[in-house]
Structure formats: C-alpha cells, structure tokens
Specification:
- The protein is mainly alpha-helical.
- It is built from five helices and no strands.
- The relative contact order is 0.03.
Length: 131
C-alpha cells in the first residue's frame, strides 16, 4: 500500500506527462463525440441532482431527529432556541436567494415562471406545516 501513497504524493513528472498527453489527444477527437458526450452529460447531471437532493434531505432529517431527541431528553436547554434560529436562518437565506434570482434572471419570462413556481410551492408547503 506504500506505493499508492508514493504515487499520490510523488511522481510529478509522470503525472505532468500524462496530463499533457491527454490534452494533446483531445485535440484529435471528432466533434461528434462531444455532441454525444453533451447529451449523456445532461442525463447524468439530472440523475446527480436527484441524488444530491436525496442526500441533502437525508442529512436534514438526521440533524432534525438528533436535535429533537436532545430537546425531548432535556439534556440541553438551548436546543429549542437553536432550532428556531436555524429555521429563521434557512428561511431568510431562501428568501434572499429567491430575490437575487428575480434580480439576476429577470430578462427571460421562463426564468421568472420557474422562480415563481418555486415560490408558490415553497409557500404552499410552509402553509401545510402550520395546518
């Protein structure tokens, strides 16, 4: 296993030559390859975004469960205050982000439509929390 550490930390000449060779080789690839690569990348990027969303939700639920458990056990009295602060920070960040999106992407009506749909669903889900 020592060779892996040696390859990772050293052998810079070989790494430089390999990267240079890859850069030169990519100059001779046909443009049709990059068209297919772009199409495949779009599909894979959508799947990756779905994966990221699932992971973010999973981490958020785990953090929430641990904070609620600590709050219910009564171990730390300030956990409830921390949960309220986190809620306001996350809502404030979301509102700020949406306002910046309206400012930055106001040139195209489809952008405004997508942002407005996001705002609608965010408000609808927030209202559902209180019902």
């Amino acid at each position: 296993m020592q060779w892996a550490a040696y390859f990772h930390d050293g052998m810079w000449s070989l790494k430089f030559i390999l990267i240079l060779a890859v850069f030169i080789a990519f100059q001779f690839i046909n443009n049709d390859f990059f068209q297919v690569y772009g199409d495949v990348s779009r599909v894979i990027s959508f799947l990756f975004l779905v994966f990221q969303t699932i992971m973010i939700l999973s981490v958020a639920y785990k953090i929430n469960d641990s904070l609620v458990k600590v709050y219910n056990d009564g171990e730390v009295k300030s956990v409830g205050f921390l949960m309220i602060i986190l809620t306001f920070m996350l809502y404030g960040g979301s509102i700020t982000w949406i306002v910046f999106q309206y400012i930055e992407f106001s040139g195209c009506w489809t952008n405004i439509l997508i942002i407005s749909i996001t705002v609608f669903f965010s408000l609808a889900f927030t209202i559902c929390l209180f019902l």
